[in-house]
Amino acid sequence: MKKRRHAKIKEIITEKAIETQEELLLCLREEGFDVTQATVSRDIKELRLIKAFDSNHTYRYMSPHADIGELETNYTQIFRSSVNSVDSAGNIVVVKCLNGMAQGACAAIDSMQWVMIMGSIAGDDTIFLLTRTESQAQSLVYELNRILQSK
User: Fold this and answer.
1) 128-151, pLDDT tens digit by residue?
2) 81, 52 contact by CB (below 8 A)
3) Which domains does the chain have, with CATH numbers?
4) How far is the C-alpha of 42 from the C-alpha of 38, rounded, in Å?
5) Tens digit of pLDDT for each residue in 29-48?
6) 89 beta partners
């Protein structure tokens, strides 16, 4: 059932400009899938969907493996347009995002493949990045802020 649902989600986001989890939930229900908002949220994380601008300037869910020609932006631009601030506490980097943008920004950060990041967790508007040491966290904050300020 999960494989079928994931395949349907990929199909839906390819065919329609899905901007919210609620829209995706309704489309899945129209297709006969009895899902909850929590299930849709988990599916988005498992499929590592990102939100990005398409060629029609619509901010929508996309596969991170979408045709690059379809995307007008790269991961750095997604990060810049989503993130408000970056700071650290110990060996944890805290990234504050626009409401609803943390998952897309986190996917962008993950795609940058920073060696110093051991793992990442994204909520609705906050990302936690775990590093091995406090000095790595400080270095990461510096680098992410450098990207953020190069708008």
Assistant:
1) 999 999 999 999 999 899 888 875
2) no
3) 2-70 (1.10.10.10), 75-149 (3.30.1360.40)
4) 6
5) 999 999 999 999 999 988 88
6) 92
